[in-house]
Amino acid sequence: MSQTRKLFIKTYGCQMNVYDSERMAEALGGQGYVQTDSAEGADMILLNTCHIREKAAEKVYSELGRFRELKDANPELRIGVAGCVAQAEGEEIMRRQPLVDLVVGPQSYHRLPQLEARARAGQKALDTDFPEEDKFDHLTARPKARRAPAAFLTVQEGCDKFCAFCVVPYTRGAEVSRPAARVMSEARDLVERGVREITLLGQNVNAYHGHEGGLAGIIRELATIDGLERIRFTTSHPNDMDDALIAAHGEVDKLMPYLHLPVQSGSDGVLKAMNRKHSAESYLRLIERIRAARPDILLSGDFIVGFPGETEADFQATMDLVEAVEYGQCYSFKYSPRPGTPAAERAHVDEATKDDRLQRLQALLKRQQRAVQDRMVGREVGVLFERPGRAAGQMVGKSDHLHSVFVESSDLVAGDLRRVRITGSAANSLAAELV
Ligand code: SAH
Ligand code: SF4
Ligand code: F3S
């Protein structure tokens, strides 16, 4: 019988990493590992890393350095690096940080049991292949334990878009879609274990082609599962928002009125230099069509300021686009040069200008976010309750529009999906009462 070992996983980056971390923990379950929530006392530490911006990778190295004491105290401790930094610079990690025993990329983590055995035997283990086989075919079946009411389900991986700033096509490889039948059976399995909301994940989730009807097709099929009440998806690319997916937003009740649709910039010159293959105008027209299908949809986006060559006028065009759209939620970043990407070779905007633009953009986005949130007051929406709040008798959940909602009630439990009336709006959440 294998002995019980403690596994600590720390996850950085996007939701796809969150999903991968779950699957990695399950893959190591067969080796006797159970998850723990602290690095102290763990037999194995896995950092599931993100390479998207400079700081993200640097954080990994500084975090690794902090494990030295733990390793000194417990020579049996094994340290692994997974995710996009592992994929991009696995061999360099091994060289730079001798504490690391194991490196595994996002497409090869189904081989973790073998890699772990090698690391356990005192060897260095590295696998950053993009194997022919589908890792999902080789992963262990998902455990039958009861789950939280909301879950992620990866349906698509990789990216063929090659935006000039982005590492994802290099760290995650080419676009692949999981077959619809596999997605359906994983979804049914999640629902049997108490899941009521599924967020379909993909680096370009709306490029999904594992179903003959594309992403809209799999959404419509998922909507037929009894007990599955809510469907979401992220992240989509504007160029893959086809008519069928737009129509689904108006026709599929279980598809929630929230759409993350990054545009990156409002300047056509910058968009062209970014290799985005859409214009500000085509994006705005797309938003109009989506809002025609689902008028109350809440839009979310990503922005990069200070892309090489971005002028003040370009930046102003981004501000204008934001004004025109009215986002309910947004993420904005200073451009960060990434090794191996085309934009990294170009002349950069100075740091002070980037800081200044980021501040101005974030101030505008924050105002918009708050205005959209404030307008929810008085409205009736659905909330899926997930956990007790800090105050006694309080439950917290997510609204249809993905706002955090607090309700005072003693008879709610996690997993309840109820109609509420919004009664107040605070910095990052809404208050409500049951109707
Ligand atoms: N696949 C998604 C998002 C991928 S990464 C899409 O196409 O939109 C998430 C976000 O990180 C991006 O939308 C972008 O805004 C930001 N990002 C990516 N590379 C970056 C870089 N080099 N510097 C700053 N932000 C970056
Ligand atoms: Fe990166 Fe662009 Fe692909 Fe998104 S679409 S993952 S930003 S290359
Ligand atoms: Fe980061 Fe990789 Fe996701 S670079 S954002 S963890 S795809």
Q: How is this fold's topology laid out?
A:
Elements: E1 5-11, H1 15-29, E2 33-35, E3 44-49, H2 54-65, H3 68-73, E4 78-82, H4 83-96, E5 102-104, H5 112-120, E6 125-127, H6 135-138, E7 150-154, E8 156-157, H7 168-172, E9 176-177, H8 180-192, E10 197-201, H9 214-222, E11 230-234, H10 243-251, E12 258-260, H11 268-273, H12 280-293, E13 298-305, H13 312-325, E14 329-334, H14 351-374, E15 380-388, E16 394-399, E17 404-408, E18 417-425, E19 430-434
Parallel strand pairs: 1-2, 1-3, 3-4, 4-5, 5-6, 7-10, 10-11, 12-13, 13-14, 17-19
Antiparallel strand pairs: 8-9, 15-16, 15-18, 16-17, 18-19
Helix pairs in contact: 9-10, 10-12, 13-14
The structure holds S-adenosyl-L-homocysteine, iron/sulfur cluster and FE3-S4 cluster.
Describe the structure.
The chain has 435 residues and is of the alpha/beta class. Helix content is 35%, strand content 22%. It contains 14 helices and 19 strands. It has helices spanning 15-29, 54-65, 68-73, 83-96, 112-120, 135-138, 168-172, 180-192, 214-222, 243-251, 268-273, 280-293, 312-325, 351-374, and strands spanning 5-11, 33-35, 44-49, 78-82, 102-104, 125-127, 150-154, 156-157, 176-177, 197-201, 230-234, 258-260, 298-305, 329-334, 380-388, 394-399, 404-408, 417-425, 430-434. The termini are far apart. FE3-S4 cluster binds at residues 13-14, 16-17, 50-52, 83-84, 167-168, 171-172, 203.
